[in-house]
Amino acid sequence: MQRATITGWGRCTPEGVVTNDELATVIDTSDEWIATRSGIRQRMVSHVDNSDMATVAGRHALAAAGMEASDLDYILVATCTPDRFIPAMACHVQAKLGAVHAAATDTNAGCTGFIYGLNLANGLIATGSARRILLIGSERLTAYLDLERRDTAVLFGDGAGAVILEATDGSDGIVSINVGSNGDLAGALTVEGAGSSWMDVPTPVRVVMDGREVFRNAVVGMAAAAEQALDEAGWTVDDIDLLIPHQANLRIIDATTKRLELEDHQVCVNIADYGNTSAASIPIALSEAIDQGRVAPGSKLVLVAFGAGLTWGATAIQWGERTEPEARSAAALPPSDRTGLQILVDRQNARPT
Ligand code: UT7
Fold first, then answer.
1. Of ligand 1's atoms, which has the minimum distance to the CA of residue 249?
2. What is the rounded CA–CA span in Å between residue 157 and residue 311?
3. Tens of pLDDT along 249-270?
4. For 130-168, what is each residue's pLDDT tens digit?
5. Whose CA is closest to 74, among 110, 125, 119, 112?
6. Would you kindly state where each structural domain of the chain is located, as residue ranges?
7. How far away, in angstroms, is 9 Cα from ligand 1 center?
8. Could you tell which of 151, 185, 217, 304 is best to mutate to test the pocket of ligand 1, judged by most ligand atoms within 8 Å of the CB?
């Protein structure tokens, strides 16, 4: 059976930067608290639809793979913040890209969404159901924030990352992948007010999280999933060139690094710049790592995530030969006429009470 390998990559981050100090002008918090508890220094706030960010990330990934949108036969979007519940956000992306031959659907596994997406894409390629897949992790989490909930409002940000997956007969590609869930802990991280269960009890949309419960489970779950991916790939920790963990909290990343006995230079960390972008965090970090020359031909990568569900997943990927894009796209978001902070404040003022 053939497996999937990554042949294109790209990202899109909106221009609306909000620093911790700016946030502290509208929330009872401080740069010191946010930075020491989470490692976050700033986040980006989108002025456009989630599908617009996803489309720009997708265009960069297509160019990097040397592909046209019409070459795609599948678009898979990992998101928990789709533009709307119906249709799937992937359908909007398909239209915006002009990917006329592509099937399109979404997957929602919270912050583990990108790993779940890789798992699904790998299966589609293994069975021959699809040959050229665009997988995008894209989130507009700031849309769910309530600035009066300081425990969650300081943590999340917006952005998108994308990859192209194709079949390979070589030693490159997804060598192993595992995903799991524990729905008994669904209440530890949820969004109130959006979804059919809320129709009879109209409730403002907001993220509700038992941070300590998620933290405890993430510290154990991330390392366990990564170790399973290594075992199933026949690799050891010493084989890892780069660990790309989901960026939820610097302390969780540090604990995972320590459990796996990795050195800091073997781990991608960019949470300070973006906050937690859920399903987008791993493909954004992967795309940055390639641009920074941290991925070499044949590099052994481990990607690992943990999130709402609770869900987890990890994959061992051997990189192919190419680390330079086939071509570059000039795709970009239109400029914003408001600052990131203004967007957050305007939205808060418009919230139903
Ligand atoms: O992406 C996957 C899903 N998410 C995660 O993985 C997140 C996992 N959890 C975490 O990252 C951490 O639990 C948090 C960063 C969310 C919180 O850190 P913590 O060390 O667990 O803090 P805490 O929730 O125990 O709160 C400590 C104190 C509380 O005050 P008291 O009760 O000790 O007086 C909070 O009220 O910090 C207070 N607090 C704040 N203070 C200033 C909570 N939020 C804030 C805030 N600014 N933004």
1. 11
2. 20
3. 999 999 999 999 999 999 999 9
4. 999 999 999 999 999 999 999 999 999 999 999 999 999
5. 125
6. 3-324
7. 33
8. 151
